[in-house]
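Troubleshooting: if your tokenizer reports a length mismatch, compare against these two reference records.
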Amino acid sequence: MSIWWSLHLRREAASVPLARRLLLGTMETAGVDPDISYDLSIALSEACANAVEHGGDTGDGGPSEAYRVTAYLDGERCRIEVADAGPGFPSGSAGRPGGRAVRPASAEAEHGRGLCLIQELADHVHIGNKPGRGGAVVSFDKILKWRKDAPLVAV
């Protein structure tokens, strides 16, 4: 079984729950274990919130109005990618093996926990910049578990 979808979303806060609900609905319909679906939906929400908040100005100084979310459920794995057209991560922080190094936020911080949450909830995470065109890309994978009654379980 293979399912994929891609959304082109406006950089507005209302787009975050839309992407999350679509992912949860897809996974519920396919028969993915609810705990795995929940973990992935939190990770997706954090990645989308970062694109909405930080994917603002493009490299040429103009505003970026949209970002893209793509999800693949393929066999035993789900892969999600969130890409924006903003300035990307600071020079020198992307392009390392596995992408950007993520520093944990302090316990009192009101911001800065999203990338750490994604790394805790997913099995493999890549955080970096889009080659050549600018913009950030956050992608993450997770091995799927299926409900016993899953209608679209992988074979």
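Reference record two:
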Amino acid sequence: MSTPSPIEERLRAALDARARLIDAHDLSPYRPPTGPAWGRRRVRRVVSAVAVTVAAAAAVAFLLLSGSPDRPHPTPPARDPRTPPATSAPSTHGSPTSKPSPTSPPETAPNTGPGATPPAR
């Protein structure tokens, strides 16, 4: 081991002299700090966590409850998609004995309603 430098010897002597000035009466028992129990940072963290939780719950509730109860149901298809259309049947339009099918629209729609023009005489 090398010999200590003069600066190191002076620092050791100063620290030793300072340590000899302190005795058992100068030391006090440990006491916990008496400041506020909750720091500002801790309060801010708790408040921001609560705010984020409330905002997330409000967003979820809005998304779940925003659908109206009177939501229209999807309309069924015009015909059963499993049955092929009948294209080889002869057309019987205009015959007085044939009945229109419930899926075919009427040939002439009555023009009655607000804004309809009265029939000409």
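Descriptive notes for reference record two:
- The CA atoms of residues 35 and 42 lie 14 Å apart.
- The chain is about 35% helix and 0% strand.
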